[in-house]
Amino acid sequence: MPRKLDRRTFLEIVGAGAGTLAAAKTAQTAPTGSNRPPNFVLLFADDLGYGDLSCFGHPTIQTPRLDRMAQEGVKMTSFYASAPVCSPSRAALMTGRYPPRCGMPGNTGPGSDTHLPLSEITLADALKEQGYSTMCIGKWHLGHAKDEYLPVNRGFDHWFGLPYSNDMRKPWVQTEAPLKLYRDTKAIEHPVNQDTLTERYTEEAVKFIQRSANEPFFLYLPYTMPHLPLHTSERFHGQSRAGLYGDVIEALDWSVGRILDALKQEGVDRNTVVVFTSDNGPWLNLPDRMLQAGNERWHAGSPGPLRGAKGTTWEGGMRVPMIARWPGRLPSGHVSGELASTLDIFPSFLSAAGMEYPGDRTIDGNDLLPVLQGEANSPTDYFYYFRGRNLQAVRDSTWKLRQTGGDTGLYHLNRDPGERYNVAGEHSEVVSRLQEQMKSFESDVYSG
């Protein structure tokens, strides 16, 4: 695991490293040179459920490219988003820190100045300082009221996408602010043609890969879909037996395939880490405000065998699909049930790049590479389920304790992933241990 440094030393070291890397890039004759650090592609779906991909058990949605990605890489079955709603989940992904710790426990939206604190170091900050070309394509949702909150001032060289969720406009949200599509800091389209967004995001991603193929790059693609309202282009309409929702997921699958093909065409496939996952579970518990302008309750995904949905700390709200692929470095067709989360992306990518990471703050995630390579058990002893600033649950490798509204539930997740059987009364010693763990962690998070 990389040695931890304070923020000033971290920035000095990676800044110096960027110069060395730039010289190496100039001298390099092939994009897959042995001295070159890996590229990173992070594909992040919005409200995709645990059971929405055919390789995770959906009976009618077909996702052949994601299925093949899983066959060529690693599928994780106990992988978690770090929050059950959008902004906190993305904040944790970008920083490796639980949302209350990194200062973003709740959502932002039109008319709000809420943003990821400028003191936070994002994954893009770290990789850019190391000499990586960086681009964000898609939904940001970490602050938009000022230019300094936007991706191009948070470590990304370029951005093409939406500032927040695609429903944050009339009639679903009562705001006078129009939803706009941005390029860097400039709004370039409103109203936004959401039907073509997935395809436009994909083509932007391919262009970025093509122009960055001779240097290390980090591509972050947080899709707008399948967050409601659902949109997809005409070519995908009616293609899935699962209706409009299935059409949207199959369009995402096409997008992943197009990006994987571009990596191969540019000769960087074997030197690129690709991760696909989701920001939280499916939006099954729709508020009434969403049931208008064509939205239906069945325009949402599936938690598979899990209980709950987006906005909850049940498994269905936070356990999500995860597939990782790195040819020659990760085993093919490996399925791992080890405990992991989006918090682990930050330290894992930095570790793969051979980088130091800042030590003036707590990084909650862990380096997953040995786990993905099948060489180690999870370094995560406990995972904590926050809803806003409230710590509602904790799990270890076996047990989950959930405490909300005065109720206490204990679930054996290995034999009861659907959280159907509360066995708190039969395992008081486990309840006590996990209660103490929650108290200790909550004190640690809020003591600073």
Low-confidence stretches: 16-33
Averaged pLDDT: 93
State the share of residues found in helices, binned by percent.
25-40%
Which structural class is indicated by helix and strand composition?
alpha/beta
Rounded radius of gyration (Å) = 21 Å
Spatial gap, N to C terminus: 25 Å
- Which series of helices and strands comes N to C? EHEHEEHHEEEEHEHEHEEEHEHEEEEH
Task: Note the main sheet.
Answer: 10 strands, mixed
Count of runs of 4 or more consecutive helical residues: 10
Instruction: Give the amount of beta strand, in percent.
Output: 15-25%
The total of beta strands comes to 18
Subunit organisation of the chains: single chain
Strand order of the largest sheet: 8-7-6-5-9-2-10-11-3-12
Specify the overall morphology.
Answer: globular
